[in-house]
Design brief:
The longest helix has 24 residues, at 361-384. The strands form 2 sheets. This protein has a 7-stranded parallel sheet, with helices on both faces. The protein has a 6-stranded parallel sheet with strand order 10-9-8-11-12-13, with helices on both faces. It folds into 2 domains: 2-175 and 360-384, Rossmann fold (3-Layer(aba) Sandwich); 178-356, Glycogen Phosphorylase B (Rossmann fold), CATH 3.40.50.2000. It is 43% helix and 16% strand. It starts with a strand and ends with a helix. It is globular. It is α/β, with parallel strands linked by helices. It has helices spanning 14-26, 43-46, 67-76, 78-85, 115-118, 125-143, 152-162, 213-225, 240-253, 271-276, 292-299, 312-316, 328-340, 342-356, 361-384, and strands at residues 2-7, 34-41, 55-59, 88-91, 103-106, 146-149, 168-171, 199-204, 230-235, 260-264, 280-283, 304-307, 321-323.
Length: 385
Amino acid sequence: MLSLGIDASNIRSGGGVTHLVELLRAVSPLDFGIQQVTVWSGTATLNQIAQREWLHLSHDPWLDRSLPWRQAWQFWRLPAFAEQTCDVLFAPGATFQRTKVPYVTMCQNMLPFETNERRRYGWSMMGAKLSLLGYSQRRSFQQADGIVFLTRYAQRVVQERTGSLQAQQKIIPHGIADEFRLVPRSVHPLSFYSFEKPFRIVYVSIIDVYKHQWHVVDAVAQLRQAGFPVVLDLVGPAYGPALERLQEVLQRVDPGHEFIRYIGAVDYRQLPDWYHQADSFVYASSCENLPIILLEAMASGLPIACSNRGPMPEILGEAGVYFDPENATEIAVALQSLITDHVLRLQCARMAFEQSQAYTWERCAKETFEFIVDIANHLNVALAT
């Protein structure tokens, strides 16, 4: 029987936390020959993980502090902890591990590897952080015994930046919580909608420099000027400089908040309602690995207008209409095609919903733990011989 350690010191928010929580919820480690799982992380992350009899949640005050402190913990403290408590280490945050036990890492963040996207932050703390993460994650991938990628796109781009990787690799997509799943509803022609009962578009995502909410706002403003009864809800937390840019555009195109609402952050448990009350979903990100938000929209039975960048076409396939996320006119045209063609809307919603059924946390957990155990057993056999 094996003991598994999980270094979640850099898993603090967003899809990384969702992945960790759902992975541990969906798995029974004993089925894979793992008797104990130890998770090292900060207080906020550990508080979101349900306790299990085989699970040990380990906290260190250093892990509640800034990135340099967490990296110092990984360098000075983690190696001893790992060698004392586990046979194999899983590092989903893709940070370099100086340890004697086998370790498997994971690529979840493409910003450190997408040079043009990282430049959007300019000379800022965020830009410096991403550069530091890029260096750390490249070392992690080059030294790891196994690497989990979420998409073929991520696997290709990372190896373009790191060179050929010697580690065993496996593509294991994330899953979708069942709360988001909703069979596509009946659709209505454009004549059904009015300014009193508008066509509702939702964009769920952090307000950030690579999410391009301001271009979506301009696109919706163009549709309103053309007489279409549409409204847009922007749901999600915000990165300060990006929020300032968004608010400037909102003040220009809709100062009275007549047809665009910035909702801000909402509790994760409330997110399904925002999808289920909408008529369509728009996703204008230009940098992703595997966007869980896009999967959630697909599972929610929504017709989707989507960015043509990164892995989005790999995930959505022919189940959506695409646009350049930095071109407001293209976004408007894509949205208009869904608004005016209710048959296309239903076709896209049904195809997206069907494709979303392949993404389950149970499958993700099973494939992840099988891969980790395979790596550990292979290396133990190699060392024994």
